[in-house]
Write a structure and sequence with these properties.
424 residues; 10-stranded mixed β-sheet; 4-stranded mixed β-sheet; 11 helices; binds guanosine-5'-diphosphate
């Protein structure tokens, strides 16, 4: 059995979906083990351009079983919308190629309501949530105040459990936020509707993966977001509410005994960040606009313009370390082709001192980037297929990053299409 994890090294949007799409044909299963419908993994293939939110990026390949593990925030509305939109574009999504863990927890409509209400209450101190209900969902999961997907099958018990949860949730909606309560009958209808839709997909995916392990099948694990958004190791409180690190795979996938043979960390050739929080190498004004346009940096889920800047070596090295990455896939190298000089944030300056270790999150606000420049290559590299064909300065840039982050760069992506890449 050969297992691989594909994880984000930075703030997310590194191009994980594109790398999963490229490599998943070698695997029997593709598993999402954390996060929810707030992701936006973009895949470009022969059927067009797709932004996947919950469904693993292996869905386009015949013969692959895609699993939503127990660690995901199972938003039935977002999932169903995604299933229908994929089917409408000719992609097969059925109970043979998509399975949902019976131990995944259900994201209820009140999670989205509470997410929006809390962001509104915070005003200019908001976290920059995508308002998909992720933070309220995970808080409830840890309070044991949501239901497992497997419960949908037991209707009598389900009604009782949903009623109890709503009673408690309405106290919060009314008492804390002065919002309208949710009607029980309305909620029952919602639950019945999605039970009917999702029931065929629900099974004991842990058992399925254990059988796969025993019979030597291979599994690819697909993460959402990146190291810096990890709840425990990221830029708290501007993190997501789940663990984005590969070390969460045994917990969130349903395969507690898993061995990961390779962890591919996806790094963008420059930095981008969606939402609030410190971003030391951020650019503003004209040069930011130029990079944002060159890289088409607008959120896959929300359409929000992404914050952009030079690659941040300090953050990337930290991201590689906490992911325990065995190699790196560097994406979007083609985007930098317009630059005369390529900026690299090599260190931070904090209180007059230069540092090269990623500091305690709170101190990031006071860090200034220390920038060095490498020569640009000023030619289109989007059709380059081999390392030897890459312009010398592009090679030098890749080698420079590789050396500074201390991890081999095995894949270089030079375009969004499946075959626009170089394998070293
Ligand atoms: P993910 O969430 O990590 O999968 O990343 P996103 O899908 O949010 O963002 C990556 C974006 O970059 C998508 O629009 C991809 O189609 C695009 N992309 C990925 N790799 C490359 C590349 O090498 N070059 C270019 N120009 N675009 C790329």
């Amino acid at each position: 059995m050969k297992n691989c994890a594909i994880v984000g090294i930075n703030w997310g949007d590194e191009g994980k979906g594109r790398i999963v799409d490229l490599l998943c044909k070698n695997y029997d299963f593709v598993v999402r083990y954390q996060g929810g419908g707030n992701a936006g993994h973009t895949v470009v293939n022969e059927l067009g351009k797709f932004a996947l939110h919950l469904i693993p990026s292996g869905i386009f390949h015949k013969g692959i079983v895609n699993i939503l593990g127990n660690g995901v925030a199972l938003d039935p509305e977002s999932l169903w919308e995604e299933i229908i939109s994929l089917r409408n574009r000719g992609v097969t999504v059925d109970e043979n190629n998509l399975k949902i863990s019976d131990r995944a927890s259900l994201l209820f409509p009140w999670h989205k309501m509470l997410d929006a209400l809390e962001e509104e209450r915070l005003k200019d101190k908001k976290y920059g949530s995508t308002k998909q209900g992720i933070a309220p969902f995970y808080s409830d999961k840890y309070q044991k105040k949501t239901i497992l997907l497997g419960e949908l099958i037991y209707s009598k018990h389900l009604k009782e459990h949903v009623k109890d949860l709503l009673e408690w949730k309405n106290l919060i909606l009314r008492g804390v936020y002065n919002a309208d309560p949710i009607e029980l009958e309305e909620l029952y209808k919602w639950v019945e509707d999605y039970t009917e839709k999702l029931r065929p997909f629900i099974c004991d995916t842990g058992k399925l993966l254990k059988e796969a392990e025993n019979t030597g099948k291979s599994v690819l694990f697909e993460a959402q977001l990146g190291s810096l958004r990890d709840l425990d190791y990221g830029i708290y409180p501007y993190t997501t509410s789940s663990n984005t690190l590969a070390s969460y795979i045994p917990l969130g996938s349903g395969l507690a005994s898993v061995n990961i043979d390779e962890t591919i960390g996806v790094v963008k050739a420059y930095s981008t960040c969606v939402g609030e929080g410190p971003f030391v190498s951020e650019w503003f004004g004209e040069e930011a606009d130029k990079l944002r346009e060159a890289g088409a940096e607008y959120g896959a889920k929300t359409g929000r313009p992404r914050r952009v800047g030079p690659i941040d070596i300090v953050a990337t090295r930290y991201g590689v370390e906490v992911q325990n990455a065995t190699c790196v896939a560097l994406t979007k190298l083609d985007v930098l082709s317009y630059m005369d000089k390529i900026p690299v944030c090599v260190k931070y300056e904090l209180n007059g001192k230069q540092i090269d270790e990623f500091p305690f999150p709170f101190l990031l606000e006071d860090c200034k980037p220390v920038i060095e420049y490498l020569d640009g290559w000023k030619q289109d590299v989007s059709n380059v297929k081999t390392w030897d064909e890459l312009p010398t300065n592009a090679k030098k840039y890749v080698e420079y990053i590789e050396k500074s982050i201390g991890c081999p760069i095995k894949y270089i992506s030079v375009g969004p299409e499946r075959d626009s890449y170089i394998k070293r």
